[in-house]
Amino acid sequence: MELKSAMEHATSDSQKITAYNNLVTFYSNTYPDSAEYYGLQAIQFAVDRKYRLGEGLAIEHLGIIDKEQGRVDIAKKRITNALDIFRELHYLKGMAQMTNSLGAVEGSKGNYDVAIKCFIEALKLHDSLSDNEGLLLTYLNLGSLYMQHDDTANAWKYLSRAEKVSKSMPLTDATISLYNTLGVYAIAKRDSAKGLETFLSDLKLSDKPQFTSSHVECLSYLGQFYLDRGEPAKALEYLREGLRIVTEKNMPEMQSNLLLEIGQILEQSDPVSSMSYLTKAKEICEQMHNRRFLIYVYQEIITLDKQKGEYKEALAAFEEKDRLADSIFSIDKAREIASLSHDYELDQSRARVSELEVVSTRNAWERNITGAIAISIVLLLIILLFFFRRSVLLNKQLTASKEQLRELNSMKDKLFSIIGHDLRGHIARIPNVLDMYNDESTTAEDKEFLLSTLKEHSKGSLETLDKLLFWGRSLVKGTRIDQVNFHAKGYITEAIEFKKMAAAEKQITVTDKTPEHLSAHADVTHFDFIIRNLLANAIKYTFNNGKIEINAESVSRPGFIVFAVKDNGVGIAKEAKARIFSSLNSAPGTANEIGNGIGLMLCKEFALQNGGDIWLESEEGEGTTFYFSLKKSCLMGLMAFDF
After folding, report:
1. 166-216 pLDDT, tens digit each
2. I need a labelling partner for 281 at 20 to 30 A (CA). Which of 87, 151, 173, 266 fits?
3. How many other CB atoms are there within 10 angstroms of residue 75's CB atom?
């Protein structure tokens, strides 16, 4: 193999690290374990050779691949480590790239304020280096980040700067990605004609052999554009053209993505063809050993099998999907543990090198006692300073632990309050209602009323218990999030049906305006919890004869679907908005319904865990709209923070 041969014949340390990194890139999508192996070998080689820059470059390479493959925690650790090395060496280009990558990781974790600070710092570094490509990518990421927050003013500020920089650069994949983002921006500003014109223009620009990936990306954007407009036939034309190109060029990763997208669209209209596309996508993923994407394919196969009534096949696919999810979770955990072990071994290697250096220095000291005494005094001062700083750090940690203990104690009190009041209150009434129901003097009309009351108390107990269980699970470290592709419409319909009686009692009209073909990528249980809780809150705070509307769109935030639950109820006071997602207190509803605040707190946590966000708009007396975003299942479009 040429790459291994290049590594074996490398004559310098820098050539060796470059060869290792090429091997890591080659294996990253097909044999991730081999990629990890060669990456760690590169780091160990650099440490043994005391080649600090090479160590940083190898760690950087692994960190970026971790980020691209969704292992954000270990990616953040590695990128931060590489950044520290580059700062130590004052390697400005590496500092700029890693600060930019760190911003991307923080953004994917929902830490938008931290991400923006990283991007601004990266801009300063790229500017000092006159690095136009770095400036363009950072401006592009800032623009995309602000678009996700519906801050179109700041989004345009940075996208227009990126466009200005691009005019002094040759046409590249990065500039085409920028123009595509400008098309998404136009659609977010409700200028669909401008967005379509931009995508079509990009399609012509990218129609060159060196831009095959960008060209197919443009085709995917156009497919998504027409799918969002409710024109699946037109969408399929563009997606099938993209599939033809990647099949001809032998680009299996993009091929499997497009096969999945087309299979999703055909699920309702042509299930036989849909299964054919999904089966082909499954075969390609298995050949590539792409376990993560294979899970998405199995999820669609399960949906299709259920639709066709083939429950035996659906169950088999579900078991295989679950086995893959568990194996990926185990592999990721093992990789994190292996990384910690490797870090320890590297520290030991550095320590051995340090010991040898100390011995060598000590021999020199013996030849110069005066110098040895001076150095000893300096070392003593350093040790004293180290213990002083450690003492300060321990004091800070102690203070933080006390604060955390206080918060946990407060949380414990609230938990017992919920169990003792909300949960016990519902359950305690059930025996009394049953006694009255069994009383011989109770009329049929009264029994019907008591049966309805019993049902409401049972539902209230179940909902409170569900929230407590979700809350408890959310506090368990290492809990696996089972993110899959799914159609949101069916779960929204089920949520409306579940709350049908509560809405009917207050004569509230609930309207579902979500598009049919929206497919999100998240933990289904989390999505179901969020939509049911927001709908329950809307019913709770809406007056009799009120209206509730559920809607969704996928253009205002690139790569995300934004769901909205809107009511015309009491609204939320300005001072209450800031703490609405963190308080364990809840105001009574329009019919004096009680609550505990756990629901919205968990909605916030679940949205962030799935890479999205949640926010609201409200005016007292006019109603409230809760928004939450989740990633789209379409994996071909331009995603924020891609490099």
Report:
1. 998 899 888 988 898 999 889 888 899 999 999 999 999 999 988 898 899
2. 173
3. 24
Residue 288, class by beta-carbon neighbours within 10 Å (0-12 exposed, 13-18 middle, 19+ buried)?
Answer: middle
**pLDDT tens, residue by residue, 338-384:** 454 445 455 555 555 455 555 555 555 555 666 666 677 777 778 87
Give CA 85 to chain center in angstroms: 27
Helix (H, G, I), strand (E, B) or coil at 552: strand
- Provide the b/e sequence for 193-231 (b: ≥16 CB within 10 Å): eebbebbeebbebbeeeebbbbbbbbbbbbbbbbbbeee
Q: Which of 493, 494, 506, 583 is nearest to 539 (CA)?
A: 506
- Letter for the amino acid at 142? L
DSSP, collapsed to helix, strand or coil, labels residue 509 as strand
The three-state secondary structure class of 560 is strand
Count, in order, helices (H) and strands (E) of the chain.
Answer: 25, 7
* Angle, CA of 148, 226 and 491, to the nearest 5°: 65
Beta-bridge partners for 629: 562, 613
For 160, other C-beta atoms within 10 Å of its C-beta total 14
What pTM did the predictor assign? 0.57
Tell which residue, 306, 300, 254, 309, has the closest CA to residue 279.
300
Biggest distance spanned by C-alpha atoms of the chain: 109
Angle in degrees, CA 51, 57, 60, rounded to 5? 140
